[in-house]
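Thread: quick sanity check before group meeting

JM: Hey all, I'm pulling together slides for Thursday and realized we never actually wrote out the predicted structure for the chain we discussed last week. Dropping the sequence here so it's in one place. If anyone has concerns about the input, flag it before I start.
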Amino acid sequence: MNEKLTRAIAELHASPARAVIACTGAGAGVQDALCKIPGASQTILEAVFPYSEKALIDFLGHKPQKSCSPETALRMAVAARHRGMELDIRSGGTGKNIIGLGLTATITTNRPKRGENRVFLAASSDSGLRSASHIFEKNEDGYGKLGREGEGIISDHLALNLLLETAGLEQILAAGEMRIEKHVSLLEKLSKRDSLADLLIHPNETLGTAADLDPKKHILFDGSFNPLHHGHRNFARQAKFATGMDVVYAISTNHPDKGAIPREELLARSEQFRWFAPVLFTENTGRFVDKAERFSGFSFLIGMDTLIRILDQKYYDCPVREITRRLRDDYQAHFYVVQRAVNGKLSNLHETLLEKGITPGFWLMFTPIPGRIDVASRDLRTTSAAF
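JM (edit): ok, ran it. Output follows.
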């Protein structure tokens, strides 16, 4: 390892940046290079190499269209950062200063390839998304000029360089050896849009509307997601497994207690879903009875604390029993409920319904989902300025 690389890695270890590294196809030497310099435990939270198709699907939570593509690198980076934030929060941290590094490559193997040998890289951090790529030269026989080892070393150096650049440190590659693209934020991209109402932002940043959603294929997960955390993500994964439906995160532009949410804040929150999951903005749906009316026939994913708010008389000028009747009969709403502590106590679904005066005739509207959420966004907001 040359002196410049050694010094750069030592500076990375001394910085506040911590990383989860996810590579497939190449990049196995990144962790080795970082670990050769003392202090690696200050930087590496986790390193994974989901080489098989099933391992990559498990890591991303879905099957990518192509294993080696710019999109897959971005999704890997975002998934890696989410994993890093989870590890940090579970250790008492705030989820800040976490870098997710994603790398996917197809390089020289024991047979000639028709397509290009190439590597795609991406990094996700507090400051946004970055990406890069490189194509390796090939001989006429279909094998790479540098061989598998040479292409692997270059992939490692590209990944280390991107990691350093994302951490705000001096890079190991000279200008021109690697072009890093910093992605425009959604706040900038959508700055001229008149309204966010019914705007659906797909993970790949293409735009749609609420009309694109199907109650037989999509389940709405409504919340503030300020910030999004691993409890939300784990809950959504459990719901997809239990229902077979794709989860769409939904954010209302107005809160029943806090009023209208500033546009800039809404778009800042939407950054959390890029290359991860679809997010829908709704307007004038602060209460769940309003959401159910607007999205008649849809199912909703909620926590036990949200269920208690749905059944809180203070939000209505008619009995709660009438509200539940409307939800069931008029809007055909269904609720999948995850267990979580409310006021320090874990509540049972059916006991909660009985306490709120909801008789068994309405219980089929509510289905418990396995698992529980033990972290709350409000607790993270007290110590972090994220989103």
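AS: nice. The radius of gyration is 23 Å. Residues 3-182 form a domain with the Maf protein fold (CATH 3.90.950.20).
JM: adding both to the slides.
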